[in-house]
């Protein structure tokens, strides 16, 4: 008896296979468009010598590999081939290869009211596609000028339940049957020239429901310049190998024999490297799935993928909904996509003698030039409010002055998202609960070259991150903000890092956080002792850095634009002091107390003086530290230091207030 988890994995594999089959049927390199014209060949065999004669055929059956195509009735018109020539051209099992035979196929038009395609595999899965009103126009030398079908119905069986779906109108132009049959049935080395199969294809109203009840919809699907190179075993054999291999991998995991794993990796690499896609675009996408937490609905207004020097993937109007949780992106784009790392990893794993490594999953990821996101909106359900005023910030006083940071109190810069709020009683929100709204105006992430699947450089920029201040309660530093009267936070964040393998150094080119009506903190520096071992999966990065890394330089800049005044106002009320009295106490503590705590060195005194000046007139505070030792100050040394003075003795410090 198989283990329940194994059975569940096999079920998921079957479901994935069903959906994959359905997607394959909707894409141009799949099987269904092949029978439209291959079945037309024997029909044209009935054409008379006259170019205007119409011939009607019945019960045409054509086996092709693992598929069988049946046309109960077909009409062929306008062929110049004789009956005997057509019969020889389309005879199953003939010694002459299909591409050579199809190159002689000619007809003015071929019409098939109903065309049925049946394909078995992988495993017990069986897929059936029934096309309606198929027409091929102007067939010359194995090329179809225009190929259309009024629609199609899909059925996938072989599991506990059946998957099914429909297509609307299908239209393709400049279809090269010779190239298609070469790619699917004639083996090659994967290094030949690209053969274009479709100049363009459009499919309308795709709907498919898999055995789990997940439903996919696409209003319109388009592709252009689709083709590929001939590969070992042909596209048909490679697709079957991948489908079978993925199913076994899902079910058996690490127990999958090395030879089977190698076959799967090799077939996957062949397909990725050989397929050629000019562009694919889908509009009006949706995916709905019902689970324990309710119905999950994913929608996208447009998805587009293009290849070339600026290869990229873009999603517009992407939205997620599940219960009271809602999220939306106006636009999400990936640029500079390269499958070179994926191919390199698959090629290595295609050797049965190659051992699998923990880093393989990371190495399999494609390289990306950058990611951009615009217009994020996120609504999350929250617990019931515990105060009469759900907008009241923790620690806020009833007699506090009006909050200038309150939503709607003043307009923000152009393009700024609406302030985030926690509001009860939003549409669909259960009574007594508080909805949390988070918004992000822009985000950008750029990547440097990969090392074992990890970028060696990168820059993250978030602009206009707006959220209720209450959501950061309990977080270090930011958790105190609600107590200073902030109800909503409007933040910008930047993290720019780069690794230098030769110097074994990590550069913190910029790490910064800034907030409206608060201020900014900016950090730059260099960390030494960071070698290639950082990319190993054998030890957590944090533990490795503790033993090997050292701080060499550190520059810290703090700028105040309102937070310090709020801090003084809140603390003075809590201590029953006037704000100016409390400020002077902090000035004294900074100038005299800080140097004592830090050991009384020149660096300690410089820090104390700068802090006192900043507290007196809070503008900008700049601290710079350099390790006296060229090797830097080890993280372990800092953690084990008995006092701050022991650390300051090993660094040179500059401090000033501006």
From TrEMBL:
Q: Where is the composition biased (Low complexity)?
A: 379-396, 422-434
- What is the organism field in this record? Methylobacterium radiodurans
Name assigned to this protein: Uncharacterized protein
- Location of region: Disordered: 379-434
Please give the superkingdom of this protein's source: Bacteria
């Amino acid at each position: 008896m198989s283990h329940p988890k194994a059975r569940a994995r096999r079920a998921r594999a079957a479901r994935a296979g069903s959906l994959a089959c359905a997607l394959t049927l909707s894409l141009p390199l799949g099987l269904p468009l092949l029978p439209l014209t291959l079945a037309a060949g024997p029909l044209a065999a009935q054409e008379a010598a006259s170019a205007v004669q119409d011939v009607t055929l019945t019960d045409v059956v054509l086996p092709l590999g693992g598929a069988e195509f049946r046309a109960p009735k077909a009409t062929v018109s306008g062929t110049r081939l004789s009956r005997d020539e057509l019969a020889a051209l389309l005879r199953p099992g003939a010694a002459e290869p299909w591409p050579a035979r199809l190159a002689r196929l000619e007809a003015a038009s071929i019409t098939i009211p109903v065309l049925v395609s049946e394909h078995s595999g992988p495993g017990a899965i069986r897929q059936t596609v029934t096309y309606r009103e198929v027409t091929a126009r102007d067939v010359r030398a194995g090329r179809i000028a225009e190929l259309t079908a009024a629609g199609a119905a899909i059925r996938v069986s072989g599991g506990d339940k059946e998957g099914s779906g429909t297509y609307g109108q299908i239209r393709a132009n400049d279809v090269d049957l010779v190239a298609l049959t070469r790619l699917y049935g004639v083996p090659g080395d994967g290094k030949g020239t690209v053969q274009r199969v479709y100049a363009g294809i459009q499919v309308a109203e795709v709907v498919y429901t898999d055995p789990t009840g997940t439903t996919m919809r696409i209003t319109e699907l388009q592709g252009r310049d689709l083709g590929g190179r001939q590969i070992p075993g042909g596209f048909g054999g490679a697709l079957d190998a991948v489908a079978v291999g993925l199913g076994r991998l899902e079910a058996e995991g690490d127990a999958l024999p090395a030879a089977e794993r190698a076959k799967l990796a090799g077939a996957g690499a062949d397909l990725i490297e050989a397929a050629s896609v000019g562009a694919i675009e889908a509009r009006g996408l949706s995916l709905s799935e019902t689970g324990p937490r309710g119905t999950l609905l994913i929608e996208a207004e447009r998805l587009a993928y293009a290849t070339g020097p600026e290869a990229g993937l873009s999603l517009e109007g992407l939205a997620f909904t599940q219960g009271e949780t809602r999220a939306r992106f106006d636009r999400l784009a990936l640029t500079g996509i390269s499958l070179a790392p994926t191919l390199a990893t698959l090629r290595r794993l295609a050797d049965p003698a190659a051992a699998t490594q923990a880093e393989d999953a990371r190495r399999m990821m494609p390289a990306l030039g950058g990611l951009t996101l615009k217009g994020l909106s996120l609504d999350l359900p929250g617990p019931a409010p515990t105060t009469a005023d759900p907008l009241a910030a923790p620690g806020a006083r009833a007699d506090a002055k009006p909050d200038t940071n309150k939503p709607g109190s003043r307009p923000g810069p152009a393009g700024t998202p609406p302030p985030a709020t926690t509001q009860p009683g939003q549409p669909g929100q259960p009574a007594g609960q508080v909805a949390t709204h988070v918004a992000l105006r822009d985000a950008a992430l750029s990547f440097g070259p990969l090392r074992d699947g990890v970028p060696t450089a990168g820059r993250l920029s978030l602009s206009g991150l707006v959220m209720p201040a209450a959501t950061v309660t309990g977080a270090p530093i930011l958790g105190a903000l609600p107590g200073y009267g902030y109800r909503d936070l409007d933040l910008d964040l930047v993290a720019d890092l780069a690794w230098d393998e030769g110097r074994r150094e990590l550069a913190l080119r910029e790490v910064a956080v800034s907030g409206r009506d608060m201020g900014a903190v900016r950090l730059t520096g260099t960390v030494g002792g960071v070698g290639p071992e950082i990319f190993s999966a054998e030890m957590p990065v944090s533990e490795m850095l503790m033993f090997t890394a050292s701080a060499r330089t550190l520059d810290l800049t703090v700028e105040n634009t309102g937070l310090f005044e709020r801090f003084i106002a809140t603390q003075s009320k809590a201590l029953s002091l006037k704000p100016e009295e409390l400020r002077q106490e902090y000035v004294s503590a900074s100038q005299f107390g800080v140097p004592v705590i830090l050991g009384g060195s020149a660096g300690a005194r410089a820090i104390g003086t700068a802090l006192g000046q900043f507290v007196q007139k809070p503008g900008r505070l700049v601290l710079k530290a350099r390790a006296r030792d060229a090797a830097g100050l080890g993280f372990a040394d800092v953690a084990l230091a008995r006092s701050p003075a022991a650390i300051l003795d090993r660094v040179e410090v500059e401090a000033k207030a501006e």
